Write a sequence for this structure.
């Protein structure tokens, strides 16, 4: 059996280390790289040309889905999405024969994925067929948009308020909490991970400015270019939020589509 050149892309270091430890038990596997966000994953796939990528579905800077969408057919590796259970993703992947593993990754399931990858890569037309399956899976996943949140529950004293997503100006990560600020400058906190919440929000409405900040396009009043290719974004409620250099590329590309 030939050696399978494998790459991991996951923003959670413990998850990467756990998967690396499992892969180390397989003699026919060689780990050639790991990325901690989608943007790095995209560049590393183009440069390293792995046979198989374990691609976390939800990552900062760029999601696993967006990474796949940005790759040309001749750059496309075999892909196994890694995700916490997401019924829409699982249905889309199973419908189109795309491999996936659920967190926490189990060794038996990992072995099945590696065996399938080794079998597929022996076929002369594997890249074309893999690209077609991935494109179809992405389309099916996007079509299952019923997982998009319309309201976010927040606590106010003993009560629970349902805040319409359309009224949210920004969501900022602060340690274990997310700070939500509305267009009217109301402030709320929830205990949730930013990347998990981002996966439930309409990507046409919200844009990530940095590893820890999401803003609503409709709440932006002014965008000022800054040195180094970054931006200072002013919101209607008076907030000012700076974009990171890496995320500015994605921000710029989304602005050009408006």
């Amino acid at each position: 059996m030939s050696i399978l050149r494998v790459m991991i892309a996951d923003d959670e270091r413990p998850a990467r280390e756990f998967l690396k430890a499992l892969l180390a038990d397989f003699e026919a596997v060689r780990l050639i790289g790991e990325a901690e966000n989608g943007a790095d994953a995209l560049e590393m796939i183009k440069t390293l040309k792995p046979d198989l990528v374990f691609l976390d579905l939800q990552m900062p800077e760029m999601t696993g889905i967006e990474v796949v969408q940005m790759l040309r057919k001749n750059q496309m590796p075999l892909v196994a999405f890694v995700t916490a259970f997401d019924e829409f993703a699982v249905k889309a992947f199973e419908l189109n024969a795309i491999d996936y593993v659920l967190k926490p990754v189990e060794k038996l399931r990992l072995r099945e994925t590696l065996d399938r990858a080794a079998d597929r890569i022996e076929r002369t037309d594997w890249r074309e067929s893999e690209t077609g399956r991935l494109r179809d899976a992405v389309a099916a996943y996007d079509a299952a948009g019923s997982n998009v949140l319309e309201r976010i529950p927040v606590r106010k004293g003993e009560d629970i308020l349902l805040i319409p997503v359309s009224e949210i100006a920004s969501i900022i990560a602060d340690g274990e909490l997310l700070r939500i600020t509305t267009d009217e400058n109301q402030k709320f906190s929830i205990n949730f991970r930013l990347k998990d919440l981002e996966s439930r929000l309409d990507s046409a409405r919200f844009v990530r400015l940095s590893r820890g900040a999401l803003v609503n396009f409709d709440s932006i009043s002014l965008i000022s270019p800054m040195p180094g290719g970054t931006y200072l974004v002013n919101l209607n409620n008076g907030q000012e939020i700076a974009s990171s250099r890496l995320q500015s590329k994605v921000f710029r590309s989304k602005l050009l589509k408006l």
Q: What stands out?
A: DSSP finds eight helices and 15 strands in the chain. The two ends are 49 Å apart (CA to CA).
